[in-house]
Amino acid sequence: MSPVQGPALLKVSGLKKSYGAIRAVNGVEFEVRPGEIFGVIGPNGSGKTTMFNSVLGQITPDAGRIELKGQDITNLSPLELNRRGVGRTFQTLQVFGKMTVRDNLIVAAQEHGGSMFSRMFAPSDSGLGAKADELIDLFRIRHVADKKAGELSYGQQKLVDIAMAFMSEPDLVLLDEPCAGVNPSLVGGISTLLKQLNQKHAVGEKACSFVVIEHNMDFVMDLCHRIMVMVEGEVMAIGTPAEIRGNKQVLDAYLGS
User: Fold this and answer.
1) Helices (H), 94-236
2) 168-210: per-residue pLDDT in tens?
3) Where are the alpha helices (DSSP H) in the chain?
4) Check: CATH 3.40.50.300 for 1-85+171-257?
5) N or C terminus: which one in the chain shows less Cβ crowding within 10 Å?
6) What is the H or E stretch that residue 27 is in?
């Protein structure tokens, strides 16, 4: 499904971050549309992770502005961003190994669900059980739903980790290398799941956008509507997969001709 036309969901303008003399991010600008899957690629050290963590409130940029639905979110905390509809996954797994899969999903959404008072008087599953079950079925992990997450294979834990990001029904999800360490046989399944989640919500106000950092080029080219190429902290190109494949500057600097 094509992204929804209209104002940008996420807008990043003039983003900069330096560490001493090293300019990790130098004037990065891009927009993500409602319902869009937006890929970010580039060689190691290109500034992708610094840009990502700046958007997510994990580090403070030196300059620039980040907007979500037209509102300035620059320097907001990760918790506040989550409550405003931003979810994320990390390069490393963030599951709770001693808790069941189902409880992992429920806990992932609880901080988004309101005040401590409201959670104290909510049902034992905080009223999130039905949503957890919906994602468990979508991710095809029903057979391990009552197992402790630490007992699962790495690939199964990766699915749980991604599912957790969708428990709060976010408007925007940032996925940091969702294929890292995953058996190649599972990569296609992750791509299919993300497409299903995107298509399910890519209608009007329910549009869910993704920003995906990934080194697996086949995965990115198949999944994303548009791709941004970063090199040495700057944006080299933004375009459709076909445009990126045909960009000689990108081929020479990154993809290889």
Assistant:
1) 101-110, 116-120, 129-138, 154-165, 184-201, 217-223
2) 889 999 999 999 888 888 899 999 999 988 887 654 446 689 9
3) 48-55, 78-83, 101-110, 116-120, 129-138, 154-165, 184-201, 217-223, 241-245, 248-250
4) yes
5) C
6) strand 22-32
| Residue 159 in tokens | 């699915």
Amino acid at 233: G
Q: Map tokens 């009007």 to a residue.
A: 204
Instruction: Using alpha carbons, select from 232, 224, 234 the residue that is nearest to residue 244.
Output: 224
Q: How many CB atoms lie within 10 A of CB 24?
A: 23
Could you tell me the pLDDT band of residue 132, with boundaries at 50, 70 and 90? very high
Q: Are 228 and 28 in contact (CB under 8 A)?
A: no
Strand partners of residue 230: 235
Please classify residue 135 by burial: count the beta carbons closer than 10 Å to its beta carbon, then call 0-12 exposed, 13-18 middle and 19+ buried. buried
Positions of CATH 3.40.50.300 in the chain: 1-85+171-257
For 115, the token pair is 């005040």
pTM: 0.88
